[in-house]
Amino acid sequence: MSASSPAQTPPPTESLPPARRRGRTIGTGVAIAIAVVLLIVGIGAGYVIGNSLKSSSSSSTTVLTETGSSLLYPLMKIWGPNYTAYNPSVTLSPVSSGSGAGQSNAELGLVNIGASDGYLKNASATSLINLPVAISAQLVYYNLPGVNGHLNLNGSVLAMMYGGAITTWENPLILAAQNATIQGELKALPTADQTITLIKRADSSGDTFLFTSLCYMSWSGFPYSASTSGLSGLTGSNVLPETGNSEMVTGVEGTPGGIAYIGISYAHTVTGASVNYAAVGDNLSNSASGGLSPANYVLPNPTTISQDANLGLARLNFATYQLAVSLILGGSWAGAINLTHGGGGSNPTVTSPTPYPLVNLEYTLIKTSAVSGSKTVTSSALHDTVLFLQWAIAYGNLPQYLNQVGFVPLTPTVAGYDAVELSSVSA
Amino acid sequence: MVLANASEARRSPEDILYQESLRTKWRLGFDRVIGWLLPLLFIVAILPIADLVYYVGSRALPTLTFQVLTSTSLTQTDALGVPIVSTAEIMVFATLLAVAFGIFGGVATAEYLSERMAGWVRMTANLLVGLPSVTLGYFGYFTFVLYFGWGLSYIAAVVTLAFFMTPYIFRTADLAFTSVPRPIREAAFGSGATGPQYIVRVATPIAFPQVLNGIFLAMAIGVGETAPIVLTTTLSTILPTSIYSPVSFLTALIWENFAQPKGSPLIDLAFQAAFLLIITVIALNIVVRLISYNFQKRIQGLYQ
Amino acid sequence: MVILDPPPAPASEGGREPIPPTSSDPPDGGLHRSRREWLRYLTKALALVPALIPTLFLIMIVVALFSLAGFGVTFSLSPFRFVVHPPYNFGFGFFGSKWNPSPAPGYPAQWGTLVFIVGSFLTAVPALFLSMAIGLGIAIASTVYLPRFVSAWLDPFVDLLAGIPSVVYGIWAFVVIAPIFGTLLNPWAAAHLAFIPGFGGPPGQATGVGLPITIFVLTLMSLPITTLLIRDALRSIPRDLWESGLALGATRWEVVRKISIRHGSRGILSAAFLGFGRAFGETVAVAMVLGVNAAYPINFYGSTGTIAATIFSLLDSAYGNSQFLAALSEMAIVLLAISLAVNIAGRRFISSIISYEVPGL
């Protein structure tokens, strides 16, 4: 653009290109027009959908947020739309993030309901209450090609597997509990599948809490703690960490020779010819070296799960421990597990039918009063939360919901205690 | 004829020619061969993306009906109406915020700052662009969710995403306004324009396509972000009712559902969301290329 | 030429006659500055406010990472303490090699994050090498060997690799590619490549989770950056340098090898840095494909954890435990420090904006 130079007459106007010629390119104007049209279409569609949504529910819908246990998540997803059908002004938004996250978020007042498979100790310190809403169970799945039927595994064997004392499937301790056919099939496993691959939860998980509780109580040499991240020290080439129950399912489906602990609400999603779940034995009535009779190994079904729950709840001292109870092994440790041996109580006597050992209460954590400064746990939201939980305990525990996830309903005692706890919430 | 060393001087010319032509043949042959081999590396780069787009498309398209796209039902597993509208809402507000921050900042840097300060500010913007997304998610969690007390909410997600998108818009606004041709700028000031007059009347029409490009590209990048959203909000199944309510986002949907057991309809939902994301990104990229193609033509005209 | 009359004398402004300067007057007319100059200063100062927005954001991010006071973390645990109290190792065994937040009762929790730092490097460095090698090849092919109209079409495809969101990469890799690695490639490599140290041994999980798939995904994600930067470096070679090389009898490959690479070495170095920064900080795709495993892989097929993926996965559950939170935030500080360092180093050699079409660049 320098001033041009040699003295020339400026070119005649006609030979200059017309100011607005664009040639064959699409003008910026057209491109911008396309973008604007798309934007308008998008906003319009959103407006239409938003209107159709608002017309079906009042615009002052309260949203109750729930995060936490992936074991309780499928049931929450079933409860959500049903509760909205019952009470259209409230919608439940469940998210599966692991029990540890549920506890943390509830403590901070970031969500209305924190779901956890394990009770939260010292909940009152952060003005939370543990409120059981259902009774669930945990299954032990394994992937062994060529092995048909259910393996018999007891707590100490499981503890030794995860503790590293048992490393292959043809270990005598495992074989001793199986029938002859399965013993042969285990010995006949290909070498690559003989090594036990331990599939564990990498996130802070209530399922880990349940499983490690069983292991901890069953074998004194169990090197890990009974907590939501108790297996965080378990590492090695034969360890497969997964995040969430659903990843545990894909993990065990894809790993021959693997063993995993999965919540019963995911049992119907497990596919695979070589994937099956174990009959878990209660070995506290015998020494840790096994020696249980086949009748002591129990498959999970509503009868055996209820049996364990009833046994545990009947034995435990609600007055002292409120609802912070553990039902593992029929509640054989009285009251809350406090991570030291000698939690109290006596060993259970084996009853008939034998209870399935891996049973627990599903807890929801809610604040006892509105959190000042929090936009989520307001007193009206807390009021709606209480109403929802009352519905869940009364109607949500009906078979039509619980059968879809394999849970069993709360016993009347627990329901009664729940009602008392809920009445202490100021909302 | 190149003699490699003194001993070669003693060899016969035919030997030398033969050896040299051999070496030359090798060099030329190598050049030709590698001229065919290296472009094959394009396949290494393009094949995965082609497979990705093909797989996502083939998995998502059969079930992607209009009903699925607009359904807001709470019981239907693959109801995409709410995530799509929520994503659009979040993007619109985050873009508005980011545009406000970015354009003001970019124009101020381009026009008013000394070279030293401007270099420093540009360096900071470049650093922000290169940060891992978890750092911004973490920051959003601490600052907006916890410290400001907004909780896991719509507004926390919007503001965090705006923080994420601002550096991109800032850089392109800065670049656009500094690349207004100097003679035009000098002519404007020489004709007595003040700063704001120059910016609004002279520089903006010239820089506008580039800034628009930057906005679309920032949107394309922002719509694909997961960490800032997942860490600052919880997923909701309905449209947000207030700025503090939970909200839905397509990428967060994928993150929630990707590990479901095989055959679960939730994985198909995740692929549908992935497909929508890919289309959005490709569409925005196409629009950007159209605008910049036309912009090239235009900017050439300014130099004549 | 027309001779015009001299222009009329200008009307005086505001009644003030222009005062001719005398030698004793200071050159700027005294201490009074006109209103216009003040306005100019004011505008410049005001303009600093929006211009410093990115700097403000960066400072906010750093401050948020450092200050945990008020979130239930006392000062003795907050990361500031490492500045104040020696030894400067972030406290409680930060650089230890064992990560165990919930040990058996009676044992202290271990917060050794060396595992994750090593894991991040183990995944990012091979990905960097691979993406530099492929990117170099593609850039050379595109600038030297392919006709311009072909490369004009192919280059945007490589840039499109960058536009795909990382969750989409993650889910595609997890669902489609990881099983291929787990059932085909890993066992094949374990069987046939066992002579290379680290490639023997158990072929890893059949689901495919592990280092190979992670390196694959990270290579794909840093490929657009490296390709773009090397391409720009090679294109900025002056044409006469290129032509003089050819005129001296060199083949195109020789010109590239001996002249272009050397001339563009700064750009190539910055490509390495920025590509590494991208691979190091990648969060979501790695979290999906690798998960979180606080262990050193025993061979090439094992899985480990990276800093970014670990923070992303574990942040939600860290609040019950203030030590956990402090450990995570210290990991985040390390991640931030390395990202910033790599970015600064990478940008020293290139102009500030290369392309705004590749995110992360």
Order of helices and strands of chain C: HHHEEHHHHHHHHHH
Could you list the spans of chain C in which at least 5 consecutive residues all have pLDDT below 50?
72-76
Distinct helical segment count of chain B? 11
Secondary-structure element order of chain B, as H and E? HHHHHHHHHHH
Structural commentary:
The complex is a heterotrimer of chains A (427), B (304) and C (361). Chain A is an alpha/beta fold and 427 residues long. Chain A has a domain at 13-114 and 376-422: Periplasmic binding protein-like II (D-Maltodextrin-Binding Protein, domain 2). Chain A is built from 14 helices and twelve strands. In chain A, strands 1, 2, 3, 4, 6, 7, 8, 9 and 12 form a nine-stranded mixed sheet that branches. Chain A has a three-stranded mixed sheet with strand order 5-10-11. Chain B is an all-alpha fold. Chain B folds into two domains: 14-59; 64-299, MetI-like fold (Orthogonal Bundle), CATH 1.10.3720.10. In chain B, 76% of the residues lie in helices and 0% in strands. Chain B has eleven helices and no strands. In chain B, helix 4 (115-129) packs across helix 6 (154-178), helix 7 runs antiparallel to helix 8 (195-223) and helix 8 runs antiparallel to helix 11. Chain C has helices at residues 35-51, 53-66, 81-84, 114-145, 148-163, 166-192, 211-235, 239-247, 252-263, 265-281, 284-289, 307-314, 322-347; strands spanning 99-100, 110-111. Chain C is an all-alpha fold. Chain C has a two-stranded antiparallel ribbon with strand order 1-2. Chain C folds into two domains: 52-81, no CATH class; 123-348, MetI-like (MetI-like fold), CATH 1.10.3720.10. Chain C has 13 helices and two strands. Mean pLDDT of chain C is 80; it is low at 72-76.
Provide the fold topology:
The complex is a heterotrimer of chains A (427), B (304) and C (361).
Chain A: H1 28-56, E1 62-68, H2 73-86, E2 90-96, H3 99-108, E3 113-116, E4 128-143, E5 152-154, H4 155-163, H5 172-175, H6 180-187, H7 191-194, E6 197-201, H8 206-218, E7 239-242, H9 245-254, E8 258-263, E9 275-277, E10 279-281, E11 297-298, H10 302-315, H11 318-321, E12 359-367, H12 379-394, H13 399-405, H14 412-423
Parallel strand pairs in A: 1-2, 1-3, 5-10, 6-7, 6-8
Antiparallel strand pairs in A: 3-12, 4-8, 4-9, 4-12, 10-11
Helix pairs in contact in A: 2-13, 4-8, 12-14
Chain B: H1 13-60, H2 66-70, H3 81-112, H4 115-129, H5 133-147, H6 154-178, H7 182-190, H8 195-223, H9 227-232, H10 250-257, H11 265-302
Helix pairs in contact in B: 1-11, 3-6, 3-8, 4-6, 5-6, 6-8, 7-8, 8-11, 10-11
Chain C: H1 35-51, H2 53-66, H3 81-84, E1 99-100, E2 110-111, H4 114-145, H5 148-163, H6 166-192, H7 211-235, H8 239-247, H9 252-263, H10 265-281, H11 284-289, H12 307-314, H13 322-347
Antiparallel strand pairs in C: 1-2
Helix pairs in contact in C: 4-7, 4-10, 5-7, 6-7, 7-10, 8-9, 10-13, 12-13
